[in-house]
Amino acid sequence: MHTVSALISTSVSDARTSLSYDLQSNPIGTAHTALRLLERLKGKEGQAQRRQLAATTLRKAAKAIAEDETRSPQGPGSADMYANLPAADLRNVLACRVESDPVSAETEMLATLADIRGEEGQGTRRKILVGAIGKAAKTLAQQEKEPEA
């Protein structure tokens, strides 16, 4: 796994290559690295291409996690609020959560997605989470500066 500092200090092309390699071997770790990279680049001018790379990597990692047939050793977390919500309500809850705090929402959604990977009957929930992760990643990639209160 490459560090966020290494991904920032190298060229965008090299960062893309590094993230692609990491994605193949460890999608969960790569998703968290891409999220930390997006956080670190928030408010940095001239980093639009790198933010877009991180958002794209985050979406690809979420899709890879969702398609993974390997069951999580923990299984669905009983304390996880997303795992216990009916799928019909999940989209609205996630949209509100992403709007209010995209970074925390991403972290929570990635954890839920990792916990329910390979679980029977969770396909719809995984698809909803992947879509919400993609929307949150896009939101984070487009943020130039911290929103002012």
List the helices and strands and how they pair.
Layout: H1 4-9, H2 12-25, H3 27-41, H4 48-67, H5 81-84, H6 87-100, H7 102-116, H8 123-142
Helix pairs in contact: 2-3, 2-4, 3-4, 3-7, 4-8, 6-7, 6-8, 7-8
What does this structure look like?
- Helix 3 runs antiparallel to helix 7, helix 6 packs antiparallel against helix 7 (102-116) and helix 7 (102-116) runs antiparallel to helix 8 (123-142).
- The chain is mainly alpha-helical and 149 residues long.
- The longest helix is centred in the middle third of the chain and has 20 residues, at 48-67.
- The protein is built from eight helices and no strands.
- It has one domain (4-142).
- The model has no long low-confidence stretch (mean pLDDT 86).
- It has helices at residues 4-9, 12-25, 27-41, 48-67, 81-84, 87-100, 102-116, 123-142.
- The radius of gyration is 15 Å and the shape is globular.
